[in-house]
Every structure is written in structure tokens, then in C-alpha cells.
Amino acid sequence: PAAPAALRSLPPPVAVGVLHATRPLHTTQQHLAPLPPLPEKGGEVRHGLIPEEFFQFLYPKTGVTGPYMLGTGLLLYFLSKEIYVVNHETVAAACILSVIIYGVKKYGASVAAFADKLNEEKVANALAMKNAAIKDLETAIEEEKKEQWRLEGRSYLFDAKRNNIAMLLETNYRERLMMVYNEVKKRLDYQVAMQALRRQKEQDHMIHWVEKNVVQSITPQQQKESIAKCILDLKALSKSAQAAV
Amino acid sequence: GPLSERRLMDVRLGELPMWLATRDFSPQGLLGAVQKAWSSYHDKYINVKRGGPAGISMLLAGYCLLSYGWSYQHIKCHRWRKYH
């Protein structure tokens, strides 16, 4: 809060916008294409020492032998005036030069072939990396396209989800409906059972009361009379039964 | 093109003093000239795919000539003849 604001109000550091360079940077157009490849061969040099441009420069005036005549003349002049002095160093230079020239002539081609092979390996490595990178990117593009295609199926996904939710809602609704039905049935059953119980109780009580009164109303006199009657009936019946057998 | 923008090889002999006058002789200018000369030589003879012995042999020959020139006063004492 307070500290960052105070820091922000400070002047910018000196290094901003000042880049120390001995030459101006970014003066030419920005190259968006790869660099041009290296030239195949270097500038033409004759005898390993004198560039071809010198011979071409002298050709119109002196022909083919001009530069050689110039070289011979200069050499003789230096020797005769002893501007070039012949001493022990001349012998040393002659030996060294002969060894160098012999070495270059004999082993030059093989060394060049070796260097070329190294170069080719490097280039092949770089090319392989580039191809691998390109292939990876292409597979990434394929994957991306497939993902985009998969995206089109999201309507089906949402339809399925909607169906699921609808089914859940329906199930829930039916469960609750069932619960309501069960509860109501239980309460109604209770009422019915109560009524049945009451009716039964009333019936039992009434039967019991009627029996009790009937039993009470049977006096002992009536009991004796009824028993005597039953015995007489039985005797009569037994007689008729005996007669039937 | 105008004289100040031409390279040394494109300047004619008569125009040489004028061309030298237009050159920049400050340290940065000299350093820049040396850098340009070296980079043009390097790109022409050394920084190629299939170079040969010419690239360094010319440098070595130039070095030999320079060192002979620097020690000429000493070598003059070893001449074979006094009068040429």
C-alpha cells in the first residue's frame, strides 16, 4: 500500500533506455527468414597466396604471364639489391615451407573429407531435431483438431446429463408420492381398525351380557325340571333306538 | 556513388587524398574500419563451407612480411655485399 507507492514515485534508474554498445544495434531491417547459407567456396586464391583478383586486374594490360613476370622481376630486384637478405632464416623458411606444402598436398583431401563429415553430422543432427519438432507440432495439431471435434459432442453430453437429472427428479417425486400414499393408508387403516375393534368389543360385551342374564334367569326350579325332562327324552329315545336296531 | 561512401578498392588513384580526407580517424572510426576489413576478409576466405589453406596462409604470409619489415634494420647488417 504505502511502500509500493513510494517506490513507484522514484525516478527510473539510469540504465533504462541506455544500452552500452560500440556499434549501433538494430539498424537494418529485421530478418524474419533464416540466415543465408554460407558460401560453398572461398575467394579464389592462386598458389595459396595471391588472390585471383590480382591476376584479373593485370590481365587486360599484360595477359596471362604478366603477374608472373612481375613476381619474377620483383624477386630478382629484391635479391640483387639485397632488400631481401639471404641468411640462415632463408634456409629455415625453405625447409618449413617444403614440409608444409608436402603435408598439405598429401593430407589435405583427407582432412577436408573428415571436416566435411563432421559438418554433415552436425547438419544432420540439426535437421533431425527440426523434423522431430515439426512432427511433434503436427501431432499436436492433430490432437487439437480431435479435441475440437470432441467438443461438438457436448450437446449429447448435456442431453444425457439433463436426462439423468430428470430421472432423478422423477424418482424422487415418485418416492415421495409413495410415502404420502403409505402414510395416508396407515392413518386410514388405523381408523378402520379402531372402528372394527369398537364393534367387536361391543359385540363381545353384548353377548357376554346376554349370556349372563340368561344364565341368571335360569332358576334352580327350572333347572331341575329341564334335567328331568331331558332324562325322560333320553329314555324315550333310547327305547326308540333299541326298537330301530 | 559519392566519394565518402565508396570502399577503398573502388576509389581511383587520383581521388585517394580526397577520399582519405573524408575518412573518420577517431578511435571508434579506426576500430570500425579494422572490424569491417577483418569481417570482409573473414567472410570471404575463412567463413565458408569448403575452405582451403588460402585463408590462413595469406594471414601467415602477411605476418611474415610485416615481421621482416620490422626487423629490416637488424637484417641489413647481415648483407653479403656492401655495394649493390
TrEMBL record, chain A:
Residues 127-154 form a coiled coil. Keywords: CF(0), Coiled coil, Hydrogen ion transport, Ion transport, Membrane, Mitochondrion, Mitochondrion inner membrane, Transport. One of its GO terms (cellular component) is proton-transporting ATP synthase complex. It is found in: Mitochondrion; Mitochondrion inner membrane. SUPFAM superfamilies: ATP synthase B chain-like. Its main location: mitochondrion. Gene3D superfamilies: 1.20.5.2210. One of its GO terms (molecular function) is proton-transporting ATP synthase activity, rotational mechanism. Belongs to the eukaryotic ATPase B chain family. Subunit b, of the mitochondrial membrane ATP synthase complex (F(1)F(0) ATP synthase or Complex V) that produces ATP from ADP in the presence of a proton gradient across the membrane which is generated by electron transport complexes of the respiratory chain. ATP synthase complex consist of a soluble F(1) head domain - the catalytic core - and a membrane F(1) domain - the membrane proton channel. These two domains are linked by a central stalk rotating inside the F(1) region and a stationary peripheral stalk. F-type ATPases have 2 components, CF(1) - the catalytic core - and CF(0) - the membrane proton channel. CF(1) and CF(0) have multiple subunits. PANTHER family: ATP SYNTHASE F(0) COMPLEX SUBUNIT B1, MITOCHONDRIAL, MITOCHONDRIAL ATP SYNTHASE B CHAIN. This is ATP synthase subunit b.
TrEMBL record, chain B:
Pfam families: WRW. GO terms for cellular component: mitochondrial membrane; proton-transporting ATP synthase complex. It comes from the Eukaryota. One of its GO terms (molecular function) is proton-transporting ATP synthase activity, rotational mechanism. Its main location: mitochondrion. GO terms for biological process: proton motive force-driven mitochondrial ATP synthesis. Belongs to the ATPase F chain family. This is ATPK synthase. It comes from Eurystomus gularis. The lineage of its organism: Eukaryota, Metazoa, Chordata, Craniata, Vertebrata.
